[in-house]
Amino acid sequence: MKKIILFLLLAANPIFSQYSSDDHELVKYTFQRDYSNKIFGEYFLSNSPEQVKALLLSVSHSEDTLFVKKITKLDFNKYGDYIAFALGQLGECKTSTGYLLNKLFMEQNLTYEKECFEALGKTGDQSTLSQIINLYYDKKKNKFEGISYAIVNFFVRDIKDEGSYHILKDELENYYSTATRKFEALFALYRIGPNESFVPALNSILNQDNSKLNIRLKNYALGCLQKLKTVPARKTTTQSLLNNDSWIIRCQAAKSLIYSKFSSIDNVKEYLLGINDQNPNVSRQFAISLKNIEVEKKINSEVISEIKKYLQLYSLTINTRGELFKTLCFLDSVNTFKYISEFGNDIGSEFIIAASANNLTQPEQNLELLLNFKNTCSNKELLELLFSSLSLQKPLRDNNKLTQFLLSELGSDFPAGVSIIADGINSVFISKNQNEIKTIINTQIDKYLNNSEFMESLMSLGNLSKKVDDHFYKEALLKLSKSELFSIQKYCALKQKTEFKNTKPSNNFEELWTNAFTYAGAVVNTNKGSFVIKFNPLVSPISVGNFCSLVLNGHYNNVIFHRVVPNFVIQTGDKSGTGWGGPGYEIVSEFSPEPFNKGFVGMASAGKDTEGSQWFVMHSDFPHLNHRYSNFGRIADGKNIVDIIDQDDIIISVELIK
Predict the structure, then answer these.
(1) Packed helices 363-374 and 349-356: angle between N→C axes, nearest 10 degrees
(2) Are the C-beta atoms of residues 277 and 250 closer than 8 Å to each other?
(3) How much is the CA Rg of the chain, to the nearest whole Å?
(4) Phi, psi at residue 262, to the nearest 5°?
(5) Closest Cα partner for 356 from 396, 408, 318?
(6) Domain 509-657: which CATH class?
(7) What is the pLDDT of residues 17-38, one digit of tens each?
(8) Which one of 213, 345, 388, 409 is at 20 to 30 Å from 627 when CA atoms are compared?
(9) Three-state DSSP class for 601?
(10) Residue 560 bridge partners (DSSP)
(11) How many other C-beta atoms lie within 10 A of the C-beta of residue 406?
(12) Are 174 and 141 in contact (CB under 8 A)?
């Protein structure tokens, strides 16, 4: 019976085909990032809609605007969404911009208006933004879905216009703006940063009745108020948010309501009730957000007292208690060591180590604490220890113990540690230890040049070499350019400003391709329960095939969720548990038009074409991930389990479903 139910779940809501099992050669050359093969020309001439869409997905990764002219000759009525996507992914280009503007200005009842606006934000320049702002006000404003996404995409490229804010305000306040457009405007406002003029519109959204759609709107309305450090206007609204049926709203309320005026201890106690929330992510978020509390001096001691009472509650999860302990030490840093003595036995080491980063009044004692943990801590705890030790650079600039510790970690065999130290040591430290750092960089590059686990570390060492001196930087890049690792070669080409035309090795392509269309999904069994992923090989065959290969090798058994950001994502797949590990190889990115909405599953990466074994599941809708991460599936069953996964929860096993 279980298998029948799973089959029905996986069969529901089919996605129209793009890639298929017949596209072996196309995907193989795309996987290799080799766009010189004649197969791309053949697909451009195809009469098959599926093949043309598959082609557009493939060439969107090419970073080659020479494809633009061929793309714009395709039938927009058939492939408009994929044409716009591909043009946007290929980036700034006058031909693309002219084509998209022509569609928006000249065509009536444009089917793919949203996609055109979104792409324009990636292809256009300052004058393009001015044109679409004028277009918005010249027309009747009866459509314009996607214009808010265009504004965001321009903004992240540092292209701005005051008229953008007027459009977003219009989209939020006026009758002709649909719920979808209001969501897009709220998302855009959250990304670019609101101003005080938006507060009435945000409060109006919060006062609406709950519905599935309104939860999306309220989530971002609260996020905008959080950025403004402003709370909802009415007390009744505040109470309804804290008691909302949706854990997503309660979680976002934790971030926003912390900016209330806490004039009495009763106000603080009301907020602290959120720590008892049954959802571990909500509870943890209240403990985290509490760091931002501002209270009148007369109740400072009472607030500290209340937090200490909560720390004695053994009903709290390990993570909530740990975050609450960090908050206590942050709010009262001079007593950090007193609190470590008082609560340390019931607090995880990583939280004690992290809390010490805020205590700069006793730096020598702090360093001794960290060094005492060094020999007994796990790799995950070591990450916190390294971040905390870096915070001591300024107060302990002449301390030999700290100097030797940081240098030894820079030269260690722990890749995450190497990156953290290389990225985190300051200019004073570099200047004082220049020769030792040069020696360590040379040794590490020689030792790990072709080791994929050190991919990020090698790039961090390259960046560090530039801080040492320009001549040494050139020498380091020359060494790094001899790496067999695709990402390192690409990194060096970018830094040396040379053209990069190398192809990616395809050693394991056939295995991944076979798996991609063999399995329909997977059951992920965790200590909290099970959830089901429905795969989407139609847009991400390599990601699906790779996931299946790792499952078949037992890679995910007993692996923790090393990163859980409440109301954002749960992330797993790293056997080291640190968030820096992978399978020992990289696969390519497979960006697509699929959205990163609640329940969708994506591949984590450190940049394009660096995916490996880590993956994540969305808690809520976050469009800023769209087109930037490989979306290879969605949760078909067990979303309630995803919602209660806490950091360090465990995947017991994963079962593939045919």
Answers:
(1) 150
(2) yes
(3) 26
(4) -90, 85
(5) 396
(6) mainly beta
(7) 689 999 999 999 999 999 999 9
(8) 213
(9) strand
(10) 650
(11) 21
(12) yes
